[in-house]
Amino acid sequence: MLARLRPDFPDVTISKIRFLESEGLVRPARTESGYRQFTEADVTRLRFVLSAQRDHYLPLKVIKEQLDAADDGARARPLVVVEGLPTADDFATPDQPPLSRDELLAEAGLDADLLAEFGTVSA
């Protein structure tokens, strides 16, 4: 993760990423042993957060509100538009039917046993 972010954000640290996670700005998946697994969406989200802080001095509270609105499907007017970088609207989930159990397993790269450890999921 750091190698992907450092060219654009040379001061980013593991501690900073963990802090942003603790503040709810990024939610990487975890392996059974607790290692974080970042997706492309997580990288894009972190780039948005870091650029909004660095380039526009936005407080995390404002950035989180934008991301939360996008997560909820709201089309909030973006407070920050950085040329070439995504806006919070880019994180909104498009209207689509929910995934079936088999589609979820395929998309997440999980097997049925691991999914069962997370709880019951109807087919």
Q: Which CATH architecture of the largest domain would you pick?
A: Orthogonal Bundle
Number of helices: 6
Number of domains: 2
What integer value in Å does the Rg equal?
A: 16 Å
The general outline is globular
CATH topology assignment of the largest domain: Multidrug-efflux Transporter Regulator, Chain: A, Domain 2
* Strand segment count: 2
- Strands of the largest sheet, in order across it? 1-2
Quaternary organization? single chain
Gap between N and C termini: 34 Å
Major sheet description: 2 strands, antiparallel
**CATH hierarchy, class of the largest domain:** Mainly Alpha
Task: Record the SSE blueprint.
Elements: H1 2-5, H2 14-22, E1 29-30, E2 36-37, H3 40-56, H4 60-71, H5 101-108, H6 112-118
Antiparallel strand pairs: 1-2
Can you give a write-up of this model?
The protein is mainly alpha-helical. The protein has 2 domains: 2-92, Multidrug-efflux Transporter Regulator, Chain: A, Domain 2 (Orthogonal Bundle); 94-123, no CATH class. It contains 6 helices and 2 strands, in the order H-H-E-E-H-H-H-H. The chain has a two-stranded antiparallel ribbon with strand order 1-2. It is globular, with a radius of gyration of 16 Å.
